[in-house]
Structures are given as C-alpha cells and as structure tokens.
Amino acid sequence: MLDFLTAHEAAGRALPEPRYFLAGARPGDQVELPEEVYLALRKIVDAMQSGLAVSVVPQTTRLTTQQAADLLNVSRPTIVKLLDEGEIPFEKAGTHRRVLLADLLEYRERRRERQYDMLAATRDSVDEDNIEQTLEDLKAARKAVAARRGEPPGSDFAA
To answer: What are the structural domains, with CATH classification, of the chain?
Structure first.
C-alpha cells in the first residue's frame, strides 16, 4: 500500500481520497461506507471496548418525559418543570409531552457548560488553607441548586 502511495505521489498525482469498507465473512463480500458512517462506527466500537453501553437512535426520536428524565438522571417532575419553564422545547401528543432527543441533548450540553463555568468561578475563590470548609460550601451549594430544581437528594446534578 505504501509503495502504491509513494509511486502515486512520485507521478505528481494527488493522494487518493480515503475510502471505507465493511467486509463480510467471504472474500469480496464488502460494501463501501460513507465517511460519516465509518466515523460513527469507530465511536461505537471505541465505547464498547471501554465497557460502555451503546444505544444508537435517530436524533429525531421523540422521548417521553420519563425517558428524558432517565437520560438526564433527574426525576420526571424535574423534566416537566424544565419543559413548563421553556428550558427544553417539547410537543404535545394529546395530553402527553414529547421531547426530541436532539433538543434534550442540546439542553444537557448547555447545562454542562453552565456547570463548568460555575466550577471555574468557584476554583478562583477556593481557600486552599481551608479545603474542608470549601468542600462543605460546595456541597451545600449543590444541595441548594438541587432543591430549587425539585430534584431528590442524591440525584446526579452533573449529568
């Protein structure tokens, strides 16, 4: 392969565009994959090799409020509150609320960014001489935020 690429370059030709194939069990049993599919499959395989569970769903998937709560690791009433406050867009199917997966993932990313910003601001005010007090203050602040959201104690604020 390297000889081919070297000869190709020596002839003054541009390097060929990379191509991706999925091979079957028999010789010649293969199908070409778009780059996006190849990259997605690589991410899936990497996650599985790390022991992570993987689900592949279209981002147009509509979730129930319970499914949305499970994905964010918060209570269903917390999700309903976020929907009613306009934090996450939703649609109504009869009396039931449905949330697009893409909208939920966007909210989760915005929430993470806010949390990282708060952590950065907190880091600047850490009293290194009294780390125990700083940790207690952070724990109290986290509980206060969870209480304002109506989350049960111990829910994953950082999801």
So the answer is: 18-56 (no CATH), 62-149 (1.10.1660)
